[in-house]
Each structure stands twice: as C-alpha cells, then as structure tokens.
Amino acid sequence: MRTSPARRLAGAAALAASTVIALAAPAFAHVTVQPGNAQQGGYSAVAFRVPNESDTASTIKLEVSLPMDHPLASVRTQPMPGWTATLEKSKLDKPLKSHGQDINEAVSKITWTADAGTKIAPGQFQEFRVSLGALPTDTEKLTFKALQTYDNGDVVRWIDEAKDGQPEPAKPAPVLTLTKADAAATSGDHHMSASQDDKSGDQASAKSDDSTARTLGVVGIVVGVIGAALGVAGLRRKSTS
C-alpha cells in the first residue's frame, strides 16, 4: 500500500515539531542556577530557577544545600512575597577568613517555604534569589544540592552530580561554574559587584527567554511551512482527480 504525499508530509511535520521542542525542553527540565557562571573571588547575585514539572501538584518548598567544602562567608536571600526563607548554619572545621576576621560558621542550607495560598502551580516556575560571596578561588564550580517538595507529598531530589564523559543524570544538582577574574574585577566594592552580577543575571535570563521565544517561533514556522505544503498537495490531488 503506497503512502500518500499528504500523509508523508504530515509525518514529517510531526517529526520536525517534536525534534525542535525536544531541543528546547532541557532548559526547563530541572532546577538550575541562573546565571550559570560567576567570577572567582567575587560576590555574585544568582537565582535558583525552579520549574514545576507536575501536571497535578504544586511546589510549596525548596531546600538548597550549600557546599561546605567551599563555605561562603556571606549568604543573603532576597525577600520574596509569599515565601519565607530560613538559613541554617554549620560549624566550620577550619575558620574562614573574611575582611580580616575569622568566620567559624557558615550557611549550609537555605529553605524557602510557601506561605498559605502561595505555590508554584503546574506550568509555572519561580526564581529564588540570593547574594553569595566571596566565591572561592580554588575550584571551578560550586554544586548546590536541592530538594523540591510538592503539596501532594512528593519530593524531587536534585542531587546527582554530573561526571565527565557520562550522560547528564536524570536529577542533576544545580551547578555554578566559576571563572578566573582579573585583579580589577575583584578589587572593587563588594556590594557594587553583587549589583552588577545581578544585572548580568537579568540579562542572561532575558537571553534565555529570547532563545525560548525564537525556538517556539521556529516550531511555528516549521509547522506553517508543512501545513502550506499539505494544502498544495491537497489541491494537486483534487486537480488530478
């Protein structure tokens, strides 16, 4: 049985659309740090972006564990209406030097809990912003393990660490990549540095949203072109008949 041109075109349209959408999906698939990189030795404002992946439940809590092998002297959360942030501190085996003082404990965990009537509903996402510093100079990345709790009791554990040469794990932990900075970039005012990084984060987020919009636009163009081709094929078949 021969396949009609219309069916072949329809199959091609479905394949093309699903391929483009599949390429766009990873950006929304898991909890991430935005922007994904910052300078070593500086202060940075970042956001933990949390998408709601459930079709029936809503996210009501986020727990983020900070890496204690590279403790941070300064951790501050940005107030968010409808959410309560709690910081837990842990004792350090080795004091951390900050502005000439010894820091004997550091924030090891941040928990954001939704107030009554607040949630991340299906199809939505939220960003939880923090200021971190001073970022370490002896590592190229910081890994933040996270737990996402839904109102039906489900807990998604974003704790798996990616390994070189292996596929990305199903539930990867958020990672902040650290790049080397020149002396001029790290000698300025810390609060100003965090503000500049905050702006960079907004620009990165805008680029990400723009990329998503372009991807969806490509999907529409692909489907439109295939649809037009189907219409032409239908007219030719009628003419032949």
Summarize the SSE layout with pairings:
Blueprint: H1 5-24, E1 32-34, E2 37-39, E3 44-51, E4 59-65, E5 74-77, E6 83-98, E7 101-114, E8 125-133, E9 141-143, E10 145-150, E11 155-158, E12 175-179, H2 183-186, H3 190-240
Parallel strand pairs: 2-12
Antiparallel strand pairs: 1-3, 3-8, 4-7, 4-10, 5-8, 6-7, 9-12, 10-11
Helix pairs in contact: 1-3
Organism: Kitasatospora atroaurantiaca
Pfam family, one: DUF1775
Domain YncI copper-binding: 30-178
Can you describe this structure?
With 241 residues, this protein is an alpha+beta fold. The protein has helices at residues 5-24, 183-186, 190-240, and strands at 32-34, 37-39, 44-51, 59-65, 74-77, 83-98, 101-114, 125-133, 141-143, 145-150, 155-158, 175-179. The strands form three sheets. It has a five-stranded antiparallel sheet, with no helix packed on it. Strands 1-3-8-5 form a four-stranded antiparallel sheet, with helices on one face. The chain has a three-stranded mixed sheet with strand order 2-12-9, with no helix packed on it. Helix 1 packs antiparallel against helix 3 (190-240). It starts with a helix and ends with a helix. 22% of the residues are buried. Residues 12-27, 186-201 and 204-213 have low confidence and may be disordered. The chain crosses the membrane at residues 216-235.
